[in-house]
Amino acid sequence: MKSHPAGATTSPPPVGVPGRQMEELGADEALQLLGTAELGRIVFTRHALPAVRPVNHVLDAGDIIVRVQDGSTLAALLATRQEAGVVVAYEADDIDPGEHLGWSVVATGYATAVTDPDEIERYVRLLEPWAPGSASGAIRIRPDLVTGFRLREGGP
């Protein structure tokens, strides 16, 4: 970056890959794509530091639902039981490692514990655990900000 006398900075022009183009996604399309993914990553705070865990999810009426297993790091989110919730981010993507084409979505919002027993039971059935153990509940993420991009063929 070059610095200008007034304190403004300029970035070098973006470097494109011939035959590929990055396009921003609208929130609705980004959330729809997130719903097609089987795997995502939840970003939360643990001991005042950012933590990331891979999890599976289900999209339910625009909310992201993540199952929580007993004794897991995510169980600490349920323990807070804050009415307003805890700020988290959720990221999912589908990018072909060979072609470098696909999409990535990040949803940021408040996570709260799912407390209705019928809902918990339904989510336990929908979300298969990755490791043995009993489910202690589920987390509902209500996205306030959804952003994403698609890498596709085309461009300059």
Structure description:
This protein is an alpha+beta fold and 156 residues long. Helix content is 15%, strand content 49%. It is built from 3 helices and 9 strands. It has helices at 27-34, 75-80, 117-126; strands at residues 2-3, 9-10, 20-24, 39-46, 49-60, 63-69, 86-95, 102-113, 135-153. A 6-stranded antiparallel barrel has the order 4-5-6-9-8-7. The protein has a two-stranded antiparallel sheet with strand order 1-2. β7 and β8 form a beta hairpin.
Which helices and strands appear, and what pairs or packs with what?
Elements: E1 2-3, E2 9-10, E3 20-24, H1 27-34, E4 39-46, E5 49-60, E6 63-69, H2 75-80, E7 86-95, E8 102-113, H3 117-126, E9 135-153
Antiparallel strand pairs: 1-2, 3-9, 4-5, 4-7, 5-6, 6-9, 7-8, 8-9
Order of helices and strands: EEEHEEEHEEHE
Structural class: alpha+beta
The average pLDDT score comes to: 82
Instruction: Round the Cα radius of gyration to an integer and report it.
Output: 19 Å
Distance between the termini: 24 Å
Can you list the strand order of the major beta sheet? 4-5-6-9-8-7
Number of helices: 3
Give a quick account of the main beta sheet: strands, pairing sense, barrel closure.
Answer: 6 strands, antiparallel, barrel
Query: What is the number of beta strands?
Result: 9
Principal-axis shape: elongated
Proportion of beta-strand residues: over 45%
Helix content: 10-25%
Outline the low-pLDDT stretches. Answer: 1-15
Features:
156 residues, alpha+beta, 6-stranded antiparallel barrel, two-stranded antiparallel ribbon, 9 strands
Q: What is the gist of this entry?
A:
This protein has 156 residues and is of the alpha+beta class.
